[in-house]
User: What shape does this take?
Amino acid sequence: MRILSSSIVVNSADQIVKDIIRVYLEPNKTFPELREMADTGLIDPLRNFSEACRAESESLHYEPPE
Assistant: This one.
């Protein structure tokens, strides 16, 4: 990934790893807490990464000349 992807994509992936470690060390959440987090959008660890990948993919899209 570090060879083929932009620094934005790589930094987003690195942030996911940091977030996973941070959350792993936190106290366990109850099911109602998890439901609330899901409903409010707090649980979406791949959002920034997927948006960075999509933006990069779109920027590489080749449009043949007319």
In short: The chain has one domain: 7-60. The two ends are 33 Å apart (CA to CA). The chain is about 60% helix and 0% strand. The CA atoms of residues 16 and 22 lie 10 Å apart.
